[in-house]
Amino acid sequence: MSGDFLKTLKTFDKDSLTEPIKRTLRRYTTSPDFDPAAVGKVSTAARALCEWIRALVTFTDKTAEIEPKRRRAEEAKAELEVQMTALKAKQAELQAVVDKLGELKARYDASVARKETLEKSMAATKLKLERAERLLQGLSGEASRWTETVAQLAQERASVVGDVLLASGYIAYLGPFTNEYRKELAARWVNKCKELGVPVLADEKEPFSL
């Protein structure tokens, strides 16, 4: 075989074979006389060409079987790409929903925390108010006692001079006398202080009640 012929065989466009040509070739390749071993007994070059033609027919037949599968695979691949694109879009939507849920949960947790803080603050305030109310009630009772004490102290302050005067006289002069006479003198002194406008706590009936 010449070099150009071999080059032509190597570069032959196998996809250019039409179906009529393929049927013609099959009639030869299925013939018992078109066996490479039998042809090789006649010519080595013819044997090589015979093997090439048989391989070409086998290749085109297999290609004919594979081509629909290849097209279906390409269609499936294209469909898969469409589905993957749709899946990515759905995943993006899902992630947006998840992010929104996370935001809402964070806001909910913050609201619950604020609610708990307010409840604790309200409980503490209520306790303080109850304590303040009890204190005010206690102080209101004390206020009456303090008012009485202040009035008594004011009265005692007003009569302190007369009371000291009477007490000094009792101590200095009444010791030697009998009890009855001491009471009589003390009553006179109390009455005299009142006549003179000197306030004293004691009175004529109880002259020693200073």
Describe the structure.
- It is built from five helices and no strands.
- The mean pLDDT is 81.
- Helix 2 crosses helix 4.
- The longest helix is centred in the middle third of the chain and has 130 residues.
- By secondary structure, it is mainly α.
Order of helices and strands: HHHHH
Instruction: Using the alpha-carbon principal axes, give the shape.
Output: rod-shaped
Beta-strand share of residues: under 5%
Helicity level: over 70%
**Computed Rg:** 66 Å
Helix/strand structural class: mainly alpha
Number of helices: 5
List segments where confidence is low: pLDDT < 50 over at least 5 consecutive residues.
none
Mean pLDDT level: 81
Distance between the termini: 160 Å
The major pleated sheet works out as: none
| Overall strand count | 0
Summarize the structure.
The protein has 210 residues and is mostly helical.
Q: Which key phrases capture this entry?
A:
rod-shaped; about 210 residues; single chain; mainly alpha; about 0% strand; 5 helices; about 80% helix
Secondary structure blueprint with pairings:
Layout: H1 3-10, H2 19-29, H3 36-40, H4 44-173, H5 179-195
Helix pairs in contact: 2-4
